Amino acid sequence: MAQQHTDSALWFFAGAALGATIALLYAPESGHHTRKRIRKVAGTSADKVAESGRQMADLGKELYEKGRKMVDEANSMFERGRKMIDESEIASGLGEG
Question: SS3 letters for 41-76?
Answer without folding.
Answer: HHHHHHHHHHHHHHHHHHHHHHHHHHHHHHHHHHHH
